[in-house]
Amino acid sequence: MKVLVIGSGGREHAIAKKVSMSPKVSKLYCAPGNAGISECAECVDIPVHDFEGLANFAAKEGIDLTIVGPDDPLVAGVVDVFENRGLRVFGPRKNAAIIEGSKAFSKDLMKKYHIPSAAYETFEDSKKAIEYLKTSKYPIVLKADGLALGKGVLICNNYDEAVQGVKQIMEDKLFGSSGDRMVIEEFMTGREVSVLAFCDGTNILPMTSAQDHKRAKDNDQGLNTGGMGTFSPSPFYTKEIDEYCRKYIYQPTMDAMKAEGRDFIGILFVGLMLTKDGPKVLEYNARFGDPETQVVLPRMKNDIIEVFEACIDGKLDQIKLEFEDNAAVCVILASDGYPEHYEKGFPIRGLQAFQGKDDYFVFHAGTKQVGNDIVTNGGRVLGVTATGRDLKEARKKAYEATGWIEFKNKYMRNDIGKAIDEA
Fold first, then answer.
1. What's the rounded mean pLDDT across residues 49-62?
2. Are residues 179 and 237 located together in one domain of the fold?
3. Cβ burial, residue 26 (10 Å; 0-12/13-18/19+)
4. Among 83, 92, 113, 380, which one is most buried in terms of CB atoms within 10 A?
5. Structural domain of residue 359, as residue ranges?
6. Which of 152-178 are b and which e, b meaning 16 or more Cβ less than 10 Å from the residue's Cβ?
7. CA-CA distance, 193 to 282, in Å (whole number)?
8. How far is CA 162 from CA 44, 138, 297, 300, in A?
9. Mean pLDDT, to the nearest integer, of 94-108?
């Protein structure tokens, strides 16, 4: 098979690496890819939003399967473009990707179909939102309705903070047009857990659990980012919780989307809050999580191409997902100043230290090749992942491996997975 992966981040590097291990694959392309992906795939200089260009390439090269990584092209309808051209593609269509593209849609869906989640209200007028805040309980959560690179959520501790937050989102357009509409939501407390699941429109097959660290600084301080590190599995996601979620969250979500005429085929990412009243949905995403993918896929035993094809063909009930009885931890090496202001273009040293080591991985997120050097080219630069017998061993190895890499303004959190030690 000839396979094309669309995207250029750490998530796409993890997907491409897993795809490259399939005996079914003879040639792998990635558009546009990055310096790390180029080691396992041929990178093609086509932007992720050039749908016609991507489809033309797939048709011309006889691509047998295209896998879409990022949220933006999915929400904008890249899958529909490919399908209309008779091209085989993995990911939800535009009318299903709305589950991530609109927070208001997903909240309304959960309410209509009795899927456990936080109480909420939706607003298109900042004055009405501010009026609502006068009678709200605090802390409270403000969410831009549309996509915002994983950063469109503000947690406000009091009325004044919340008013400022509404103005930032709806009037100052902190997240652009994503803030034309917003959701104000009850603040939930508990452990956050991420579960990625394969979907074929009818069946849903959850993968192993993971836990992300969104805040920029240690001890969950600082601004929300796209994710500073993650670990898998979550010790808090027990067999009983898994059974509850399958019965009351995962399958009902699939059934709800089907009932709405929006069959969901692709990856459903369910962000959960394990509250004292049971698991509730924090958010849905319509694709692999980043950086959750960097700890989940290295633990997966299955040939991922077989699973992708089963999703597209509606045969997911014939697949048994298997994961290694181990653990993985990913620590993000970022550019100091991320997620706000940071410099790019610094040479990265030490990448060769990962070669030939089966239980260590370095996934490129924001890198590019300049002459003989690989240089920094983003806020999140690399995801350093290690596997181990258990979470403590994996964490120790991941942090050891971060020391192999050097670049100017290198920054990381030092407490990824620290909660494991307290579990």
1. 98
2. no
3. exposed
4. 92
5. 327-422
6. bbbebeeeebbbebbebbbeeebbeeb
7. 9
8. 44, 9, 38, 42
9. 95
Q: Kind and range of the H or E element at 83?
A: helix 78-84
Dist. CA 323–CA 327, nearest whole Å? 10
Q: Indicate whether 111 belongs to any domain.
A: no
Q: What was the pLDDT predicted at 33?
A: 96
pLDDT in tens, 166-208: 999 999 998 889 899 999 999 999 999 999 999 999 999 999 9
Overall average pLDDT of the 365-392 stretch: 96
Task: State the pLDDT confidence band at 150, using cuts at 50, 70 and 90.
Answer: low
Structure tokens at 358: 């089966």
How many other C-beta atoms lie within 10 A of the C-beta of residue 91?
27
- CATH for 31: 3.40.50.20
| CA proximity to 159, closest of 167, 170, 151 | 167
CA distance 254 to 251: 5
Same domain, 15 and 82: yes
pTM flag (> 0.90) = yes
Distance CA 381, CA 371 (A): 18
